[in-house]
Amino acid sequence: MKQIVCNLLLGWGVVVGSTGAFAQQGEFGDVLNSLMNTGLIRGMIRNEPITTSMRDVNKRVDLPDSFGNDQTFRPLHRYPRTPTGGWKLVPGFYELRSRSYCIKAGTHAPSNGDGYLYAPLRGRQADIVQSILAGSAVHTEVDQHDVQLLLWAIIARSNFSNMNSRVVGVASTFLNPGQMLRLNSKAMLSTALQLLNSPQLEASLRPIFAAEHQIRQVVGQMNARFEDVEKLAMLAGPALMDNPDIRQGRWSKHPDGYYVRYFPHGYSRTIVQVYVPANVSTVVFDATDDVAVPANTGAQRLALSNVPYDTTGYAPDPPPVVARQQPATREQIPVPPVLPSPTVRYQQICGLVIDTRTRMRISGASIMLGDHEILSDGKGTFRLDSLVAGQTIGFTTGAAGYSADTLEIDVERRSDCQTVVIELKPITKPDSGRLVALNEADLRAGDRIILQNIQFEQSRSELLVPGKSELDKVAAWMQVHTTARVELSGHTSNEGDKSANLALSKERAAACKRYLLRKGVGPDRIKAVGYGQERPIVSNDTPERTLNRRVELRIDRL
Q1: Residues 51-61: pLDDT tens digits?
Q2: CA distance 282 to 465
């Protein structure tokens, strides 16, 4: 299947007067070459309409690529928007199937497996592009192709005083008079194609100048069609993979504290997934200020909108706000009965406290709202009264034998009771099996062995050489003890995000299992699990907490 590639550079946008000027040489050509030598062209490149690139990306890896793959992402289109068109989010996982746009021409379209990272929208025309993206959510009657055509014209630095009425009409829908005036400005040089004859111009740039000129001519025609411009702007072929370590699904940390990742489907559709950690109270997510930057420098930059291209395939009803550490995978939990608000001035929250594993209701749970404490009743339910719509409240819920959890929630204006389900996670007791060495003579079921020298890439699950040597000993032991069944468990310290630590511990245990399978151990003889930071062997409040980062082997059967 052909991959599409933009052939329109985020370019210099010089307007060409006539093809006859291209053939002329002489005094102007000497002046032009002089300008090339003084670096003027380089300055024009740095002054692109949109400048966002890999240099604006935070490449630090905080979360493994598989983090969140076992979670249920809430569809953003079902949530109320902020006045600016974004969404105010509490901790959790969210997804937007965004209409996206090509804003990096002369590059390849996204192909399967390409990694994309977050960067802010920057450049001389960044405010204009963001106004168009934000306006597309308000003026949904404007076709996505017309929006893309307008963006291509801006990126090519087309002169809007010579533009066809259709493109100008779309622009006037989204932009104010001052922004329209900026789009009518003349280009810096009037005979751009003459650059093609300059000996100082790199050969790779020559076809780009010609393509830009062709696109500006087509967009200026009264009967210009999207398909005609796309044929000029796009070529077939995948991008050169020059950053293979950055794969699809890589999480990027936003400056506001949440994480985001991208799954493009062509340049016009991108699945955006957002993770708000538990230590972040609330954030506002607005895709129009974000750019999905490709790891492979020859691929397209993608601008994102808050307009969903598809809203099907999700659960039929949005779930209640849930403070959870693991996704609910069993039957739907009934919520407390809807109670009428006692007065029109105040709102109520009706809550339910349950065990995140057994799904049983928890009675006697303590709900602390500031200095005020209430307890869940025999059915695990509670009620908060006299709340003001629009305020954000925070409360902590705890119960004997459970880890406490804190939730912040926006009080909604409604005639019935706002519902919330709080899931508490039981405190896991440490494994009671004795710690032994693999070469001891009296090994028995239940024994635990801490595998020494199991090492991984930082925040990754790729085994390093010392760890492979240790697992070779395990494989040899299991080949001698042919009836043995074992559990490989991954563990972490309490540094970093709790959910990320749990996911990483599972990945590392699975990596050890895969290595043993390659050594000939049967898959039914090994179980791989991850406990994150739940089973420390030393206090996490001491420098020795690094000992908690480990892989254990437990003998289930000999």
Answers
A1: 898 889 998 99
A2: 42
3-class state of residue 58 by DSSP: coil
Nearest to 70 by CA among 93, 53, 50: 93
Say which residues have a Cβ less than 8 Å from residue 524's Cβ, sequence separation at least 6.
485
End-to-end Cα spacing for the chain: 52
Q: β-strands 347-355, 418-424: how paired?
A: parallel
Q: Choose among 313, 265, 327: nearest CA to 100.
A: 265
Identify which of 274, 270, 275, 282 has the alpha carbon closest to the alpha carbon of residue 307. Answer: 270
What single string gives the DSSP state of each residue in 140-177? TTS-HHHHHHHHHHHHTT--GGGS-HHHHHHHHHH--H
According to DSSP, residue 463 is labeled B
Whole-angstrom Cα distance, residue 543 to residue 538? Answer: 10
Report the alpha-carbon distance of residue 173 to residue 141 in Å, rounded. Answer: 11
What phi, psi does 234 have (nearest 5°)? -125, 140
Is the pLDDT confidence value at 360 over 80? yes
Tokens of 166: 């259709």
Structure tokens at 504: 């990483």
CB within 8 Å of 172: residues ≥ 6 apart: 180
- Residue 230's region, left for phi above 0, alpha for psi from -120 to 50, else beta, is alpha
- N residues, the chain: 558
Domain range 321-424, CATH class: mainly beta
Which H/E stretch holds residue 30?
helix 27-37
Instruction: Please compute, for residue 456, the number of CA atoms within 13 A of its CA located in the half-sphere on the CB side.
Output: 20
With bands split at pLDDT 50, 70 and 90, how would you rate the model's confidence at 2? very low
Site of tokens 């598809």:
310
How far is the C-alpha of 520 from the C-alpha of 169, rounded, in Å?
A: 67
Domain ranges of the chain: 4-308, 321-424, 448-557
Strands, E, within 103-243: which ranges?
A: 116-120, 234-236
Which of 3-7, 159-163, 445-449, 539-543 has the least mean pLDDT?
3-7
8-state DSSP, 460: S
Q: Highest mean pLDDT: which of 250-264, 301-315, 373-387, 514-528?
A: 250-264
d(CA 504, CA 461): 7
Residue 136 to residues 51, 145, 149, 171, 310: CA-CA distances in angstroms?
22, 11, 13, 11, 15
* Check whether domain 448-557 has CATH 2.60.40.1930, yes or no: no
Tokens of 42: 């380089």
Q: Which of 59-68, 113-122, 236-245 has the lowest mean pLDDT?
A: 236-245
Q: Are 304 and 288 in contact (CB under 8 A)?
A: yes
Q: Which residue has the tokens 């900026």?
A: 182
- Is residue 485 within 8 Å of 556, Cβ to Cβ? yes
- pLDDT-derived band at 4, boundaries 50, 70, 90: very low
Q: Which residues contact 557 (CB under 8 A, 6 or more apart)?
A: 445, 483, 484, 485
**39: Cα within 13 Å, side-chain hemisphere:** 3
Determine the pLDDT at residue 206.
58
Q: What angle do CA 36, 48, 43 make, to 5 degrees?
A: 30
